[in-house]
């Protein structure tokens, strides 16, 4: 073998002669520098549910530029003294129409009738469960949050109730009874209140709110469910540079992480028209690995072995 400089290309896997200068200067800090993305949310925040398709694509394509910190905001402590005059909400039954409007506009399915039949009395129980999982079962907390949202919005389950929360935690492979018991301890409430303190320091007044900041504390605050372009523009402004999106994962890999996806999520993630979603699913997934179902006028796909909520109102 001759004495030429050789290398294996990381992208192509091809080995050959190095054709670059022997010494290349670079700034390591600049190359690996990341910002922090604070996502302030709540398990029963309907506009957060509406944001899921856009947020998930943003995280898929640009997550390499930031570290994510999900913060519970404490939307509903209790109905005692609660009022939302801007949306005409004074009592639980008032929430139903508001939720249905959000669902209709966003096309992320929302039933909402639980607010008349069996209303959530506080968003703190699921928020405390989230904090327990976040602190003791790192990596499972956002899977819990997603399942909880599917349960309350699409499948009309009261995620403020003990048994519902236990079943959801069981579904993600943890001991639901144990996690719930831990969520009832003072430690879990203290952790939740630490989130509330951070929300206050960040100056957040509504959900969803996304704040992106650099190491110097400079950044951008985006309130409400916005377009993908809004978050990309904000990120580029903070980095003061153009950013390069990663290619989204194939549907087969995405469904291993998120075994239930609604039509709107597939449309946004892959740029597919709503009328072409079923055809797209059929082309991307192997026969027998999935089921296509419908709920509240919307299509969704679920991995064949996925454990859906027992009381879901899904209709084939």
Outline of the structure:
Helices cover 42% and strands 14% of the residues. It has 13 helices and 9 strands. The longest helix has 17 residues, at 46-62.
Walkthrough of the structure:
Helices cover 42% and strands 14% of the residues. It has 13 helices and 9 strands. It has a 4-stranded mixed β-sheet, with helices on both faces.
Helices and strands, with pairings:
Elements (H helix, E strand, L loop, with lengths): L5 E3 L6 E3 L10 H5 L2 E7 L4 H17 L3 E7 L22 H12 L7 H4 L6 H13 L4 H14 L7 H10 L4 H8 L2 H16 L7 E5 L5 E5 L4 H12 L11 H7 L2 E3 H8 L6 H8 L5 E6 L2 E6 L13
Parallel strand pairs: 3-4
Antiparallel strand pairs: 1-2, 3-5, 5-6, 7-9, 8-9
Helix pairs in contact: 2-3, 2-12, 5-6, 5-8, 5-9, 6-7, 7-8
Distance between the first and last residues' Cα:
65 Å
Q: What fraction strand?
A: 5-15%
Using the coordinates above, name the CATH class of the domain at 36-201: Alpha Beta
Computed CA radius of gyration, to the nearest angstrom: 22 Å
The CATH superfamily name of the domain at 36-201 is Glutaredoxin
Largest sheet properties: 4 strands, mixed
Mean pLDDT comes to 89
Contiguous uncertain segments of 5+ residues: 9-18, 24-32, 306-316
| Class computed from helices, strands and strand pairing | alpha+beta
Strand order of the largest sheet: 4-3-5-6
- Helix tally equals 13
Helical content class: 40-55%
List keywords for this structure.
four-stranded mixed β-sheet; 316 residues; disordered C terminus; Glutaredoxin; three-stranded antiparallel β-sheet; Arc Repressor Mutant, subunit A; alpha+beta
